[in-house]
């Protein structure tokens, strides 16, 4: 069971990102073949790919935190003394964590609002709450990844990229 949990911890976002990217590529390929070979376009393919990309971006946010490839100013960090650098890195992690927690909390309100309106997508007739739920999943996973990063940083295992 521990191996399974470790596998999910190490590769969950990767699997989700690969699945979403494959879905985008396959649906776009199907759309190209249908349009140019059979002269019959799909009505929902562009919308499907757009929504997959939205999910991709939110899950990618979590993945970037896990892999320590999130955006930061390394040039500035590298010129700072070690103690100041450690403080700035920790402060940055705590600030980003707080911001992500705030976004995670507000994402529930956004999804609840969309559910209340009953809005559906035009091409796929998909409830828009499914699309907006990407915020809850992405920010929720990002909160967990920031907690892991903060624990690593304060235990002295922060280091650079994996």
Quick summary:
This protein has 162 residues and is mainly α.
**Mean pLDDT across all amino acids:** 91
Q: In one word, what is the shape?
A: elongated
Strand content: under 5%
Total domain units? 1
Oligomer: single chain
Q: Total helix count?
A: 5
In terms of per-residue confidence, which ranges show pLDDT below 50 for 5 or more consecutive residues?
A: none
Would you list the SSEs in sequence order as H and E? HHHHH
What would you report as the Rg, rounded to the nearest angstrom? Answer: 20 Å
Please report the distance between the alpha carbons of the first and last residues.
Answer: 24 Å
What's the helical proportion of residues? over 70%
Q: Which secondary-structure class do the elements indicate?
A: mainly alpha
Main beta sheet, described? none
Could you give the count of β-strands? 0
Task: Name a few traits of the molecule.
162 residues; single chain; mainly alpha
Tell me what you see in this structure.
The chain has 162 residues and is mostly helical. The chain has one domain (2-154). The chain is 78% helix and 0% strand. It is built from 5 helices and no strands. Helix 4 (82-117) packs antiparallel against helix 5 (128-154). The radius of gyration is 20 Å and the shape is elongated. The two termini are 24 Å apart. The model has no long low-confidence stretch (mean pLDDT 91).
């Amino acid at each position: 069971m521990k191996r399974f949990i470790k596998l999910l911890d190490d590769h969950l976002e990767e699997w989700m990102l690969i699945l979403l990217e494959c879905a985008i590529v396959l649906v776009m390929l199907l759309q190209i073949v249908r349009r140019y070979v059979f002269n019959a376009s799909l009505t929902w393919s562009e919308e499907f790919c757009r929504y997959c990309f939205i999910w991709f971006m939110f899950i990618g946010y979590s993945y970037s935190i896990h892999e320590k490839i999130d955006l930061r100013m390394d040039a500035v960090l590298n010129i700072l003394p070690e103690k100041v650098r450690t403080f700035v890195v920790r402060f940055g992690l705590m600030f980003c964590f707080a911001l992500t927690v705030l976004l995670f909390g507000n994402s529930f309100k956004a999804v609840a609002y969309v559910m209340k309106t009953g809005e559906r997508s035009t091409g796929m007739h998909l409830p828009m709450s499914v699309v907006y739920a990407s915020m809850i999943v992405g920010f929720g996973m990002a909160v967990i990844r920031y907690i892991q990063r903060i624990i690593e940083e304060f235990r002295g295992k922060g280091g650079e990229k994996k």
